[in-house]
Structure formats: C-alpha cells, structure tokens
Design goal:
2 copies of one chain form a homodimer. Chain A is mainly alpha-helical. In chain A, 73% of the residues lie in helices and 0% in strands. Chain A has 2 domains: 2-46, Arc Repressor Mutant, subunit A, CATH 1.10.10.60; 54-174, Orthogonal Bundle (Tetracycline Repressor, domain 2). The structure holds a DNA duplex.
Chain lengths: 184, 184
DNA sequence: CACTTCATTATACAATATGTGTAAACTTTC
DNA sequence: GAAAGTTTACACATATTGTATAATGAAGTG
C-alpha cells in the first residue's frame, strides 16, 4: 500500500501499474491481487488508510460539540487537518473519483456522510438564528461543503501551508453565511 | 469530438476507448489518430472546444472593466457561465488533470492565466483600498481563485442551477475578502 | 477525361496492462 | 513433522494504445 501510495503520487493513476507496485513492494503481482482483488480494491485500501491517518473520525466528534458556532469552527479545523494529512495523494484520489465512475463510489460515500454532518449542524445553526438572513438552509449546506472540500483546501493552501492559517481564512469566508462573530 | 465528449461524460476516462469513439463517429481508429495524434490530443481538442463554447474570452473582457469592484462582479459571473456551459464534461476534464500528470498541462496552463487575471485585479483592488484589512494580496488571490474555480461552482450549484444564483452566493462570500458593498 | 493529391480504410503488428489459472515452493501453525 | 494457507513462477486470455503499410476512394487540376 505504501508502494502504491508513492507511485500514485509520483506517476499518477495512468502511470501506476500493478507490476510496478508489486516490484516496489518486493512481492509478485499475483500477491497484490490476492490481497486487494483488483487495482480498484488497492485504491480503496489506500484511500481508507489516508482517511484513517487523517483522523476522519474527528469530523463527527467536532460536529457533536454543543455550541453550534464552536462546532462549525472545530469542523472546519478537522477538515483542514484531514486534507493536509496527505495532500498530494488526496489530489489524485479525489480527482480520480471525478474521472472514473467506477472509482467514484468510494469518495461519494464519504462525501455523503460529510454532507449529512453539515446538514445536521446547519439545522442547529438555523434553530439558534445564526444563519445570515436571506439564505436557505440547503444553500448554507452547499456553501459549507464547498468551503470545507478538499479542492478548496488545496487551492487555498500554499505548499508549505499551516492548516491553521487556512482554517482562519475559511472561517472568515464562512462568516458571510453563518454568524460566527461571537468567537475568535 | 462530439462522440468523444459523450463517451467521456457517460463512461469516464477509463471507459473511453478510441475504438468506441471511432465507431460512434463512423470512422476508423486510424483516422482519429491522423486528426488528433493521440488520446491526449483528442482530449485537448475536446477541452479547447468546451472552453470556446463557454466563452473563456469573457474572463479577460471582464477583468478589463475600469471599476475594479465591477470587474470582480463580472469576472465571477463570467466564471460561473463558463463552468455552467458543460458541467458534466468539465468534471471529467478537470478531474483528469489532478489524476494524470501528462494530462495536467492543459488545465494548468488555463489556471495559470486565470491566476494572472485575478492577481492583476487584486493589485487594482489593493490600490483602491478595497481589500479587507489583515489580508495579504496573495491570500486574496488564492481565495478568489478558489471561489471561482470549477470545483467550487460544481459543489455550489444544484443540478438545475441558475448560474446567476450561484454568482450571487459567490459574491456574498467574496465580500468577506473584498469590499463590494457599494454594488448590488 | 486522365492525373495527381490527399484522406480514409483495412489489416497487421508491437507493446503494455489487467485479470485469471495452476502447480511448485515456502511459512506458519498446531 | 504434518496440515493449512501464502507466495511464487509461469502461462494465458483479453483489451488498449500507438505505429506501419498497401489498397481504396474522393476530391481538385490540367
């Protein structure tokens, strides 16, 4: 999996042959198939690994904070840290989902969960009267999804970025949608 | 090219074989190679076509408006219309650039130009004192690039979206970065 | 009309990739 | 040491990209 990760980052998907992966890992191509079933299976495993390393579970944790404004801040932060955990790899993986319908399922499933999290939080914000006026709840969800997406993080963060700096920028933008002014 | 476009949207990149493209277009595979040189060449042509159909030149036009605030508004609008012109196709094309270093060049070149446009406009905004305090010019450029990226548009717009509605949302967000309050 | 030029076709070929099958060698476990 | 499960080496089928070549056909020009 580590071999696959490195090759995927360096060569891209098209340049990633299971022959190379197997060689780099010091095993046979057949062994790779025994473990992962297919190239797609391998990618799935790599994706799961990066999600785990990036501590995805922190997203759910952040969303459960009782103060909804604080929850937004933490959710944005957890997202940034997740995306920063392996940027080059995520770029390939997320891109792949847009390119190949077969591969899409993995990412789509996680995005669905991310959306459910935000949708729930937006309902709480709405109940607390913290949504800016003239803004539908669904719109707010879409905006927050977009702001906390990998694509946005990737464009906002310079190569040597500190996730915290990006987080500050995102919160500033989110303030146009949600009233976060009570907090730093 | 139209065959390629349809197949790319329907099947994704991995499912797009030049055999299928040729058959759908009613020619031989060899003819496709005579015209486009390679699969990449074909994609390039398809990308150029969608950029032309989406009227990319309007971006440059918008950036030249003398009032910098008005220029921002128009540039955001032109971006939305560009991205809306063939969403399903752009999803594949933009994703592909993130997946495959070979393919990246096409998109990267356009992004570079888009960035130059924004960078110039941000300098004008800065000179007019319209940047929100505590914000570096490079940060502003990155934020505006992110807000007007295809990825953001694609996440913000519902399936049946009106580009103008998305544009309004984006301007609201951009207002956290640039003072646009003088305008509607 | 005959001639030339050019693109298209049919066909074959090489190279590379994915995925499967099988028997032999090797490890692990009991 | 024997049984069970992996890994290997090797062969094979299939699909795809890309190139080469001779034959075919459709222009336009004299």
């Amino acid at each position: 999996m580590e071999s696959a990760r490195q090759l995927l980052v360096r060569q891209g998907f098209h340049g990633l042959s299971l022959e190379d992966v197997a060689r780099a890992a010091g095993v046979t191509r057949k062994t790779v198939y025994n473990h992962f079933g297919s190239k797609l299976g391998l990618l799935n495993a790599v994706f799961d690994a990066v999600a785990a390393r990036g501590e995805v579970w922190r997203l759910a944790e952040a969303a459960e904070v009782s103060d909804p404004r604080e929850a937004v801040v933490r959710l944005v932060g957890a997202s940034c840290r997740l995306w920063a955990s392996d940027r080059a790899l995520l770029r390939r993986l997320v891109g792949l989902a847009a390119v190949d319908p077969e591969t899409a399922s993995v990412v789509v499933e996680r995005e669905r969960r991310r959306e459910a999290t935000w949708a729930h939080l937006v309902r709480r914000l709405e109940a607390a009267g913290l949504l800016r006026p003239g803004l539908a709840a669904e719109e707010a969800v879409r905006v927050l999804m977009a702001l906390t997406s990998f694509a946005t993080y990737d464009m906002l963060a310079p190569a040597d970025a500190d996730p915290a700096a990006v987080m500050a920028l995102l919160l500033r933008l989110a303030d146009g949608i949600v009233d976060l002014s009570g907090r730093g």
